[in-house]
Amino acid sequence: MKKLSMSLILILTVVVFLAAVSAYKDNVKSETSTYIGTYKLDKGKPYLLEGKNQYLLLLAPPEALDSLGIHFAEGDELTIRGAITQGAILVTNIQRGEESFTLRADDLSINNYDECSSVKVTPAKCIGCRLCVPNCPVGAISMVKGKAVIDSVKCVSCNICIDGNGKFRGCPVRAISK
Ligand code: SF4
Ligand code: SF4
Question: Considering the entire predicted model, what is its pTM?
Fold first, then answer.
């Protein structure tokens, strides 16, 4: 009986692990493509306008952009390499004229900066509604003991979990801040 319970626990652990891996892969497709367009800021969020398409750019925490010397102005012509996730581009490389900036590895496995995001959840305020989890475009939010927790290395400080993205209104009880 004890052996059967142990086997069941092992099988359940493997199933949960595989589901988590699959959910992350569904969230961020690791194939990168190239997008060419102009840089635009809208309500503080960075976008790339490519013809009729407009993509939110998932870059990196502001401190990381500063450390890499990345500062764009509206109208800059950019060639962006990145992976599409929830209609936004998780950026791996940016070219502006002769300049080239690499934010993360092409397979998204590692960041090219050390700075972590300061976006955080206040556990006492979090009501565990889970709304933020599927709306994070990079899968940086998980639930631990009924409260949302942000992986500060994975988080790109896009602020969707705080103030939304047009479809999701952001945390309903303002439990997330930066
Ligand atoms: S949306 Fe807000 S309240 Fe809901 S789980 Fe996320 S942090 Fe907690
Ligand atoms: S700011 Fe929020 S939604 Fe954006 S990457 Fe970080 S945890 Fe995810």
Answer: 0.84
